[in-house]
Automatic annotation (TrEMBL):
The organism's taxonomic lineage, starting at the top: Bacteria, Bacillati, Actinomycetota, Actinomycetes, Propionibacteriales
Pfam families named among the record's database cross-references: Glyco_hydro_125
Name under which the protein is recorded: Glycoside hydrolase family 125 protein
PANTHER family: MEIOTICALLY UP-REGULATED GENE 157 PROTEIN (PTHR31047:SF0)
Annotated signal sequence range: none
Amino acid sequence: MTGIDPEVLARATDEVRRATGDQVIADMFQASMAQNLPAVAERLPDGTTFVLTGDIPAMWLRDSAAQLRPYLVLCAEDPALQDILIGVLHRQLEYIALDPYANAFNREPNGAGHTTDETEMSPWVWERKYEIDSLCYPVELAYRLWRITGRADVIDDRFRVAAVAILDLWTTELDHEARSQYRFQRHGEAPTDTLVRDGRGRLTRPTGMSWSAFRPSDDATEHGFNVPGNMFAAVVLGYLEAIATEVLGDAALAARAKELKAGIEDGIAQYGTVGHPTLGQVYAYEVDGTGERLLMDDANMPSLLSVPMTGFAAADDPTYLATRSLLLSPENPYYYSGTHAEGIGSPHTPPDHVWPIALAVQGLTSTSAEERQRLLELLRDTTGGTGQMHESFHTDDPTVFTREWFSWANAMFCELCLAHAGRTLR
């Protein structure tokens, strides 16, 4: 079994139905929660859990953790579900030990995936686009499982090995130009699928933040230092410090995490905030350390819109609220508005397409129950008749969409349902 206990799900569905007053939303929640995890998760003989990234036969570190968020909300009531989620974590940690620069992995060392990319591939690796958030999500998952379940088998020797690899990589990438050996080139594809300068990426100068080759969308960064990714890294370094102190009893590991966290936070404060002429201080999406900066947001998490979810700032923080105003307006070049919907899209998908993930994040970071209800109803009404969340859909015609089934988006819809019913991860 790789799903949730039916009785646990039935109770949660009743809570969603009462909170929304909407049978269709409750039915969509129940169906997604019942079907989503069994459709992607496979328990392996070694006790770990392999998770497909929706309709792609590989396991992304980011997506495999993000797809679990609504199940984490309920897993305290379901020990068998805990086993599945802990198995996902342990497989992620094993993958990180194999190659912390890789973002997606194969079920076994079969050589599937992007084998012609110019980078240090291995038969285990499906894709080696380095994204800082890919290393954040497993640490967050470990911390949440440890806190929620209290189980001793959550943190084992695999965590220590992965933690050291993460700290080593993030420290190296504080100065990508001088220290890093990472290179990535993909030929014959879109420019966003490769790095310029023979695979090194655009020139950057140290900021205190850690460099990332690609965004959570798998598109190349424009300016190297992805601010929401570094915000997430700062938060999970605090989680790492807590685990190192309270579970591993490793003062040196804890000290490394604490020092790196402080440096990244200083870098965000110095380089990642920008004065806006009408809104005051706002967060930039990317910077390069030379003065270049990018004011925008992408639908994929971690995003600037998701800052309260990743834990870097509260939903009522003034800088976050100013940034939110910018993001949910035409000043964000990827904010789209049409006859059926308005919200944040991505350069990863066609123009005028908004993402259900971003709509769910908008609700999850709102302090208004009315806005959460409105967004749930919007998500209900924009499935294009499929009853499923898509990667994106056209603001004027929800029957025009990308990816008929996208399990991460379904998971985000379910998390918003639970939050509206008073069940949250925070």
